[in-house]
Write a structure and sequence with these properties.
By secondary structure, the chain is mainly α. The protein has one domain. Helix content is 75%, strand content 3%. The longest helix has 42 residues.
Length: 262
């Protein structure tokens, strides 16, 4: 323990830069960035990770004679790296919000929203249900370990003082943003198909039995069918989470490589 503290005190400037990158990732990451997570835990956990990472880094003298403004720019650079990593990991779960919004609009829950304590915005009911299940499976599949390992891996690809916003990074971020909507639509596609078949059946029924009030029958019927298909598709949710986690890990690795200065 004394050796660990000695290394931290000897390279206090590197320790502060490591702490900035770690805490920036915790600002928006799926588990550590939630507002109901105690701040004392975030600070303590960030300090612990920074103390572990600092002795493993090579002091190559890049901070030996830095001006105060140059050090501030390094702090800003490290903060941006951590924030981008956290944003990429959070974007993977945003596909669940997209899927939930589509499902709610299809089955008639578009007007029903709940408050998300993390973002302080109204989110759809099904999206909140998906997000709660995904967080439980995220912990069960050791997704939080993946986020922590990405911090250690980031220093192999982007040492302190490296990293830049490149064209490849912007192109990759736009691609990931589009993939978020594609994944969300794929998750919601079984319920979309079921509701579409129900609408077709109700349309045929309205033509054959004009006396029936299709609007009165159709709304509860679509809710029942939508929730029924939702219950069936929950069984394959672990497979969906594995795909999301694998995609998140590949995206984190790709983003780190894209930030390497050419």
């Amino acid at each position: 323990m004394n050796i660990l503290f000695g290394s931290v005190l000897e390279y206090i400037d590197i320790f502060l830069l490591v702490l900035v990158r770690v805490t920036a990732l915790f600002v928006i990451s799926p588990i550590f960035g939630r507002k109901n997570m105690p701040n004392i835990f975030k600070i303590g956990f960030g300090l612990m990770l920074a103390m572990i990472i600092t002795p493993t880094l090579e002091a190559n003298g890049i901070l030996a004679e830095q001006h105060i403004l140059q050090f501030v720019m390094l702090v800003f650079n490290e903060f941006c790296i951590g924030l981008i990593l956290g944003f990429v990991s959070y974007m993977a779960f945003s596909a669940l919000y997209v899927a939930g919004q589509i499902i709610d609009m299809q089955i008639g829950f578009g007007m029903v929203n709940v408050l998300d304590p993390q973002t302080n915005i109204q989110i759809p009911v099904i999206a909140n249900f998906y997000f709660i299940i995904s967080m439980m499976m995220f912990l069960a599949l050791d997704g939080h370990h993946m986020i922590i390992s990405s911090i250690f891996y980031s220093y192999k690809v982007l040492p302190i003082g490296e990293g830049a916003v490149t064209t490849a990074l912007l192109d990759n971020m736009v691609k990931m943003f589009g993939d978020m909507f594609i994944i969300g639509f794929k998750i919601a596609s079984p319920i979309i198909a079921a509701v579409f078949i129900t609408d077709v059946a109700l349309g045929i029924l309205a033509r054959t039995v004009p006396q029936m009030n299709v609007f009165v029958v159709g709304m509860p019927l679509k809710i029942v069918i939508g929730i029924g298909v939702l219950i069936i598709t929950v069984a394959v949710f672990p497979i969906i989470m594995e795909v999301i986690l694998n995609g998140m890990y590949k995206d984190l690795e790709a983003v780190l490589k894209d930030m390497v200065k050419q």
